[in-house]
Design goal:
By secondary structure, the chain is an alpha/beta fold. It is built from three helices and five strands. The chain has a five-stranded mixed beta sheet with strand order 2-1-3-4-5. Strand 1, helix 1 and strand 2 form a beta-alpha-beta unit. It starts with a strand and ends with a strand.
């Protein structure tokens, strides 16, 4: 099941109306979206997307540190990825 954070309007728009793609929208404590496989909770993964500018700002403000602490709370329960994108 694909869960998209309620603040991620662009991701929702990309998948909305796509045949064969079911998703739910809810607030995620960490990440932009999460993929969970029924019957295989150890295969759940989480993705946080950041531009290089946003990554720098997150490091500077301490938000990245808080994000890392939250991920540690989920340790051994999911795989997490930080995806940095170039915005052009």
């Amino acid at each position: 099941m694909l869960t998209i954070d309620h603040r991620e309007h662009k991701i929702r728009e990309a998948y909305d109306g796509q045949e064969g793609v079911d998703f739910v929208v809810q607030e995620l404590a960490v990440g932009d979206f999460m993929v969970a496989y029924e019957g295989a909770p150890d295969k759940t993964w989480l993705c946080e997307r950041k531009s290089a500018t946003d990554l720098g700002a997150s490091i500077k403000s301490g938000r990245l540190g808080r994000y890392t602490k939250l991920l540690k709370a989920f340790q051994n329960k999911l795989s997490a990825r930080l995806l940095c994108k170039q915005v052009g």
